[in-house]
Amino acid sequence: MAILVTGGAGYIGSHTVAELLARNEEVVIVDNLQQGHREALLGGKLYEGDIRDGAFMDTVFQENEIEAVIHFAAHSLVGESMQNPAKYYHNNVYGTLCLLEKMTAYNVKKIVFSSTAATYGEPEHVPILETDRTLPTNAYGETKLAMEKMMRWFDTAHQIKFVSLRYFNAAGAHESGRIGEDHAPESHLIPIILQVALGQRPHISVFGDDYATPDGTCVRDYIHVTDLSDAHILAVEKLRKGGDSSIYNLGNGTGFSVKEVIEIARKVTGHPIPAVMEARRAGDPATLVASSERTKAELGWKPRHAHLEQIMETAWNWHQTHPNGYSL
Ligand code: UFG
């Protein structure tokens, strides 16, 4: 039986496919390749198409015996979601509805879901617990919360069990150096900083230094991408053992400000990385730091690259060897 990975050619999806293959799992990938890269797949069977295309998804479910789904396919940019919420509701919420309808029709009862810290909004306290209030400050987080809630009702009605993994800030690249982060256009902090170190940009723009944080810049909890992949596989295992639907945070529990991230990148790359202060970006909460204690206790998850310097080194290795990402 196979695991279907939607969005499997994307950044986190491709790292999870690599880890599944390393564990000898049979992997089927669905990706419309809007953001994903064919070259990011180190194996598995790719179906190029969209989860909202019913006839296409029928083919996927009919040609393979799908045991469980790991659902990454979604748009995921906070800033963009504030400019174009319809794009997020359509691909994320409607796309998930289409997927859950197919899972119902084909009797697939397990789903691991790529959720986000953006579901919480501005936290009441840090570190954030899974039981904390969810009040998103951006449309992206709102759509992910809607997708989680949808899964709950499909569980109630159709016994589709879900594990929702709320990641904090994914970063870094695979240890093999073969796959890494490549978004076009790039909007994430660490790859942009490393593009400055590669001489591809003149400076890093810091979006706001008047937040209620120690140095005024936003604080985030960075987590290595293969530590995220490990958690998805542990979540599949939990569902295989008959585990109930649940929600888990994935972070390292330590916050780094934008200024601190830049400083670590200077140390790792040896480049001065000029920084320019700019206005706030819409939708950004000041601080997002996870408590992942429940994840560790219930899934047995243990991060392998918990330090930001280590995470940065794997990202720097990827960016140096792939200065144009997957394009030559
Ligand atoms: N930032 C800058 N300059 C840049 C890019 C980013 O100052 O050029 C700042 C942002 O304003 C933010 C921080 O760096 O304060 C991190 O920004 P990213 O865009 O790298 O990441 P986000 O925190 O916005 O979002 C990421 C994922 C989301 C996820 C979220 C959870 O993209 O999918 O982490 O914390 F929901």
**How many extended strands?**
14
The largest sheet is:
7 strands, parallel
**Residue fraction in strands:** 15-25%
CATH superfamily placement of the largest domain: NAD(P)-binding Rossmann-like Domain
Structural class by SSE content: alpha/beta
- What hetero molecules are in the model? uridine-5'-diphosphate-4-deoxy-4-fluoro-alpha-D-galactose
- Relative helix content: 25-40%
Counting DSSP H or I runs of 4 or more residues, the number of helices is 10
Order of helices and strands: EHEEHEHHEHEEHEEEHEEHEEHH
Q: Quick one: CATH class of the largest domain? A: Alpha Beta
Number of domains: 2
| Cα gyration radius (Å) | 19 Å
Organism: Paenibacillus agricola
EC number: 5.1.3.2
Subunit structure: Homodimer.
Domain NAD-dependent epimerase/dehydratase: 3-251
Describe this structure as you would to a colleague.
This protein is an alpha/beta fold. The chain has 2 domains: 194 residues, NAD(P)-binding Rossmann-like Domain (Rossmann fold, 3-Layer(aba) Sandwich); 101 residues, UDP-galactose 4-epimerase, domain 1 (Alpha-Beta Complex). Helices cover 39% and strands 18% of the residues. It contains 10 helices and 14 strands. A 7-stranded parallel β-sheet has the order 3-2-1-4-5-6-11, with helices on both faces. It is globular and about 55 Å long. The two termini are 36 Å apart. 49% of the residues are buried. The model has no long low-confidence stretch (mean pLDDT 97). The site of uridine-5'-diphosphate-4-deoxy-4-fluoro-alpha-D-galactose has 21 residues, from helix 6 and strand 8. It comes from Paenibacillus agricola. It catalyses: UDP-alpha-D-glucose = UDP-alpha-D-galactose. One of its GO terms (molecular function) is UDP-glucose 4-epimerase activity. Pathway: Carbohydrate metabolism; galactose metabolism. Homodimer.
